[in-house]
Each structure stands twice: as structure tokens, then as C-alpha cells.
User: Which sequence fits this backbone?
């Protein structure tokens, strides 16, 4: 297989960027407003549920809790009341009491026959102690098989709606995500979440591997890392093998022939 032209591409476009693999799980990362999401959640193909109407009514999802707020000890995402001021009590959030935490389940039929490929949630409040890795975020595939989990150690020692502890948790999985669950180890008390977000990798711009609306150096880094792995069945390959742009089970020169003109265009259609 001739890869000389790919080496030239690396030198010309990404010489200063170290190749890394695309992640499956993302977070926990600080989050005060939708602009802190790693995805373009206000763009077509995404749903963003802020619970500001006290309902969970974006399409194709159900939950085991209830929307709540404003006031008291409500802990919404900071910007939902129109100003980022360190507090979330004037917004709304989603709450469930005790075990088993909060679960959101997705319905493919209500989403055009496809499960979302990207799902995220923002943890805003819960058990306030310093237990390491007390927050857990899990995700499940279309068959209900657990894909894994990530944990966080960010809760503070207050229930007064401070937003400095708020963290985004997310997952990307090209084959589809049937549900997510977020919970705390203590399990004794309720937790609050906000800004449920879910959507699809843009089919009209498959070379946009990081979903930001452009095909640029960020996508090239992801593509070239996958190109070096080659086989989509390799455990090191990102889930769903998104860089396999022609769907033949490998990331090779044929995929580069699709990626290169998209990179030269830069902006997605």
C-alpha cells in the first residue's frame, strides 16, 4: 500500500500536532453554558434539553426523575437564568432521589430509526463530600451492554446552588447509545443534572470527525491516527471506526482520497 502522499500531508498540514486517538468518553470538564460542550449542540442534528419549561420533552428520550426549580437549592447550569454569576438557583434542573441515580433512555424509532451517537449530561449537584471518584457516568449500547464508565471527584461541600462544581460527562459511539446513567457512590441522596444533549455525527460531512462543522487539522489528527492503525477491528481503533469513510473495514488510501478534498474545502456543506 502506497502511503507516501499521506506522509506529505502530515508534513504540510499537521506537522506541529501530535496524533491522538478520538475518545469514546469525555469529561468530567467544567461547564457553565452550552458553549462549554465539546459538540455543536445548537446546530442541526443535535438536541439540547435545558429543562427550563420544567419538562423533559425533547424527542426520543425518557428519564426516571423530574424537572425542578427555580429557587431554594435548585442547581441549574449557570447561564440558564441569563447571567453567569456562580449560582444556578434561578434556573431549572432535573432531579432524582437516591439510588439508582438518573438514567436517560433513548428511543431509536422516535429519532428516525437511529440511536444517538453522542450523548452528554451536566452534573450540577449531589452528595457533598470529598470521596474520590464519587460521581459515576455510564453508557450502554443498542443491546443494553455497558460500554464503560468514567468518574469524577468534583463535588464541593455546599448545597447552595454554586456552579463551580458543575461538570460535563459525555460519550461518543458511532453504533448508537441506548441509555446513560449518572450516580454517586454514597447513594443516599438525590442528585441534579442539566443540559442533556444528544445527536448524530453529521452524515453530510463524514470527514468532520470531531463534529465542529469544519474539516481541519483537528480532524486530520484523528484521521491520521486511525490510518496508522489501519484495521477497524483493532482494539486501538476508536469506537465505530469513524475514519473509515468508505465503509470497507479499514482506514487506508481509499479513505484518504475521501478525506483530502474535504480537508481542502475546510467548511462542511
Assistant:
Amino acid at each position: 500500500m502506497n502511503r507516501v502522499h499521506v506522509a506529505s500531508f502530515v508534513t504540510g498540514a499537521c506537522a506541529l500536532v501530535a496524533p491522538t486517538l478520538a475518545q469514546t468518553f469525555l469529561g468530567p470538564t467544567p461547564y457553565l453554558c452550552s458553549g462549554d460542550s465539546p459538540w455543536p449542540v445548537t446546530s442541526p442534528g443535535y438536541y439540547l434539553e435545558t429543562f427550563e419549561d420544567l419538562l423533559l420533552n425533547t424527542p426520543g428520550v425518557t428519564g426516571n426523575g423530574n424537572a425542578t426549580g427555580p429557587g431554594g437549592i435548585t442547581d441549574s447550569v449557570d447561564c440558564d437564568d441569563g447571567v453567569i454569576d456562580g449560582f444556578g438557583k434561578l434556573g431549572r434542573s432535573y432531579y432524582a432521589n437516591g439510588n439508582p441515580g438518573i438514567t436517560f433512555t433513548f428511543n431509536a424509532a422516535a429519532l428516525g430509526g437511529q440511536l444517538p451517537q453522542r450523548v452528554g449530561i451536566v452534573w450540577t449537584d449531589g452528595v457533598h463530600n470529598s470521596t474520590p471518584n464519587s460521581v459515576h457516568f455510564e453508557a450502554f449500547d443498542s443491546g443494553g451492554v455497558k460500554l464503560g464508565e468514567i468518574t469524577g471527584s468534583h463535588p464541593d461541600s455546599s448545597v447552595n446552588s454554586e456552579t463551580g462544581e458543575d461538570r460535563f460527562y459525555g460519550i461518543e459511539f458511532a453504533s448508537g447509545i441506548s441509555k446513560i446513567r449518572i450516580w454517586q457512590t454514597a447513594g443516599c441522596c438525590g442528585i441534579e443534572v442539566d443540559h442533556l444533549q444528544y445527536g448524530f455525527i453529521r452524515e453530510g460531512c463524514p470527514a468532520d470527525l470531531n463534529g465542529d462543522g469544519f474539516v481541519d487539522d483537528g480532524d486530520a489528527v484523528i484521521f491520521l491516527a486511525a490510518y496508522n492503525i489501519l484495521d477497524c477491528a483493532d482494539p486501538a481503533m476508536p469506537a465505530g471506526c469513524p475514519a473509515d469513510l468508505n465503509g470497507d473495514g479499514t482506514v487506508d488510501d481509499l479513505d484518504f482520497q475521501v478525506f483530502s478534498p474535504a480537508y481542502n474545502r475546510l467548511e462542511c456543506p
About this structure: Residues 117 and 161 are 31 Å apart (CA to CA).
